[in-house]
Amino acid sequence: MEVDGRKYRTVWMEGSTVFLIEQNLLPFEFRIKELRTYSDCCHAITIMTVRGAGAIGAMAGFAMALAFMKAPSQDFLLFVMKARGEIESTRPTARNLFYATERVFSEGLISREAAMEEAHRIADKDALDSKMIGEIGNVLIPHGARIETHCNAGWLAFVDYGTALSPVYIAHERGKEVFVYVDETRPRSQGARLTAWELHNAGIPHVIIPDNAGAHLMSQGKIDLVITGADRIAANGDTANKIGTLEKAIAAKEYNIPFYIAAPTSTIDITCKSGSDIIIEERSPEEILYQEGPGEDGKNHKILVCSPGSAALNPAFDVTPGKFITGIITEKGLIRPGEENIRNLLKL
Ligand code: MRU
Q1: Total domains, the chain
Q2: Set 231, 238, 269, 318: catalytic member
């Protein structure tokens, strides 16, 4: 994706340095960060300097490869196993993270070079899959469509292109008129800060809406379809995505509005039989109680936005049952949820 006329990926690696866009600074500052150890990569995933299923998958792959590169010959296996454990304990819900560590770990047991090559392959494949999702999803977007999306499943959430937004970018490039309703996505505001920034940069008409406005707009006939991403898809098509997705899906069903999930097949976890097997990350209450942003002095400020003394609960994801999902757009094609369809798609 282009920023100020220069092409960027969200995360990439050159030699033994990992580069990433510092997402916590956006949309107020665009800065690239450099990381040189797997522990630094873990920290970046935990505090969400890098976030979004595909981007943290690519980062986890690079982190695993770095661990292989830096592992001492003595205690080699112990070192890389410990590293894998640390990488996998950063964030529990996004399947892509575990997909990446599993693959790079297996290759690393062959050689350090193989680990590095696999990490690059995972990142390249993520970008390629996202582009293909855009091509397939574009077919579902009519000229003049008004689309609601939740959270950020744009290029910042993947290595490039994104998933939920990839069809929107392609539709726009091909000359279709599109308008996007962007859920602000409390508490971390990935919609208001990241999706809105991406769409603004791409010149795509959009408006940020409060998280609780979706059903109202649907009831007024203002939304033609909903597309969101996914963090993990169970074998039966139940899908974990950013908290608040479930409400949109239920409302969309009520108003007969198509509700699509866009995700690469690397997000499917066949070992989870249904959504109830998916581990839901719970993040710090601080994310609810406080908000951050630049003040009039241009410096970053953190302010309390809730009643002092109250506690807060912060589940980061929810699970949308397959019955609310019209279709899952993957790089291999569009399918309806259901175990048989998913197994056929994966040729299992
Ligand atoms: O907590 P995040 O920002 O890493 O959450 C991931 C997401 O951006 C969403 O859940 C998204 O819709 C699916 S992953 C691209």
Answers
A1: 2
A2: 231
Give the Cα separation of 236 and 343 in Å (integer).
9
One-letter amino acid at 90 equals T
Nearest-CA residue for ligand 1 atom 8 is 52
Confidence at residue 170, expressed as pLDDT on a 0 to 100 scale: 98
Residues 200 and 342 in one domain: yes
Residue 48 lies in a domain: yes
Compute the distance between CA of residue 150 and CA of residue 224 in angstroms, rounded to an integer.
Answer: 15
Residue with tokens 């950013």, as numbered in its chain = 242
Kindly give the distance from the C-alpha atom of residue 113 to the centroid of ligand 1, in angstroms, as a whole number: 31
Q: Domain span at residue 25?
A: 2-130
Beta strands in the chain, from DSSP E residues, in sequence order: 2-3, 6-7, 11-14, 17-21, 32-35, 145-149, 178-183, 206-209, 225-228, 232-234, 239-242, 259-262, 268-269, 290-294, 300-304, 317-320, 327-330, 333-335
Record the tokens describing residue 155, joined without a space: 């290029």
Q: Are residues 203 and 314 in the same domain?
A: yes
pLDDT value for 71: 97
Q: Which of 106, 130, 154 is the last residue of a domain?
A: 130
Q: Tell me, yes or no, whether 107 and 155 share the same domain.
A: no
Quote the pLDDT of residue 166.
98
Residue 11 in any domain: the answer is: yes
Quick one: DSSP state of residue 163?
S
pTM of the model: 0.96
pLDDT number for residue 78 = 98
- Is the same domain home to 209 and 234? yes
Residues in the chain with pLDDT values less than 50: none
> Does the CB atom of residue 152 touch ligand 1 within 6 A?
yes
Nearest CA to ligand 1 atom 6: 52
Which CATH number is 25's domain given?
1.20.120.420
Buried b (16+ CB within 10 A) or exposed e, 272-289: beebeebebbebeeebbb
